[in-house]
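Hi Y.,

Following your request, here is the sequence exactly as I used it, all 446 residues.
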Amino acid sequence: MPSIQLFAPRNNSQPVAWCHSGPVSPNEFLHAVGQMAERLPERRFIFNLCADRYHFLVTFCAAMLRRQTNLLPPNHAERTLAQLHAAHPDAYAVSDQPMNVAGLEMLPYPALASNGVAHGEIPAIAAEHIAAIAFTSGSTGQPMPHPKSWGSLATEAALTASRLELQAGLHFLGTVPPQHMYGLGSTLMLPLHNGGVIHAGQPLFPADIRLALEALPAPRVLVTTPLHLRICLEQQLEFPPLALILSAAAPLSLELAQQAEAAFDAPLMEIYGSTETGTIATRRTSHGENWESLAGVHFSHGENGLTRVEGGHIQTHVELQDVIEATTDNSHFRLAGRAADMLNIAGKRASLGDLNLQLNIIPGVRDGVFFAPDEEPGKAVRLSALVVAPELSEQQIIAALRQAIDPAFLPRPLYKVDELPRNATGKLPREALRELLAGLNTKHPS
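Below is the corresponding structure, written out as C-alpha cells. Let me know if you'd prefer a different format.
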C-alpha cells in the first residue's frame, strides 16, 4: 500500500509555517504534530474547527497519524454541527475558539511546547486513508459528504503546482478558511507539498491583509476570492508586490482581474473546481475566458446531458452542475453557466451567472445578485435582485440594466441592502438569500 509523506522534504532552515511568533521550522512543526497526536482520544472522526490555519494544520496531521478522519462542515453553526454529529456519533471536536454544541465533546486546542525537536523521518500516511470528509449544504438541507483520500489531496496539489509552475519558497496567505476545499487545497496542500510556507492567519479586511502581507517575506502568494479582491481595490491601499494571486469560489470578471493584476503587480490565476472534485482547471482570467484542465483530467457528456469529469486526482467520475463547452481540444473549455441557473422567461434564455455579471459591472455597484425563486407550475418566474450600491438609486440601477439585458429579465423587485449574506468564502447560500428577501418582501409588499 503506497504512502505519502506529510510534506515534501526541505531543509530545516526553510519554514513550514509562519505564525504570529514568526517562522516554524520542519522540526518544530513535526514536534507539535507529535504532541497533538498524543493528546487526541481514540476515535474515528474529528471535527477540525480551528480558525488559526496553523492550529488547523497541526490538528489535521495529528488526526491522520492517529488514523482518524477530519470532518469539515460547510459552516460552524450549531445546527449544522449537531446534524453531522448525529451522523457521526463517535466524533469529537478540536477548536481554538470558545464553542459549545450539545452532546459533542469539544477539546480546546492545547498549548504545545515549541522548543522540542522531532526525531526520525517525516511521517507518511497511507494514500488510501480518508484524510477528510468535506460537506456541501445539500438541496434538502442535510449536509452531503464528500470523502477525500490523502492520495487524492496530494495528487491534486502536485497537478495544480505543475500547472501554476510554482517554485519552492513561496509564502501563502489565505483569506479563505482551511475547512473549505479551496482553502484546504490552496493554502495548505499546495505549500506543504511544494516547499511553500503557510501563513497562520485569515485576514478579511484590506488593512489587515496588507499588514499580513507586509509581515511575510517575499515571494508572496495571496489566496482569495473576488469579493475580497474587490474590497481591497476599493480601499485603494498600497500593497506589497506579490508573486501570484489565486482566486476562486465565485466567477471573476475580466475587469476585476485586470485591476487586481495592476494593483498587486502580479499575475492572477483563477481556479475552477468544487467540493466534489477539488481543483480541476485554471485560467489567467486577464488573458481570456477559456479554462485549461489539469493534466489527466478529462470531460465527457452523460445521457442526462450533464458533463462528467474524471481522471487525474479524481478517484471516480463526478457529474458537474456547470454547462461545459469544449473549444479546440478536450483540455480547454469555457463555462456557459450552471445547468440549474439557466432561465427561460417568455421564450428567452439567460443564465443567472451572466445576469449577475452585468449587474456587478455597473459603476457604483459594490455587490449584487439576482435571485430566481423555485419554479411553481402555472406561475411565471419572477426575478428579484439585491444590490449594495450606496450612491445609486433603484431607478438608476434598473436604467443601467435595461442597456445590458433583455427586459424580460429585469428584476421585479430590486432591493438596495447594506450587505449581502455571504459566507466565509464569499458565496451566497440560497437559503440565506431566501430569508433576506422574505423579510424585505414583508416590509415592502408589492
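The first helix runs from residue 26 to 39.

Thanks again,
Q.
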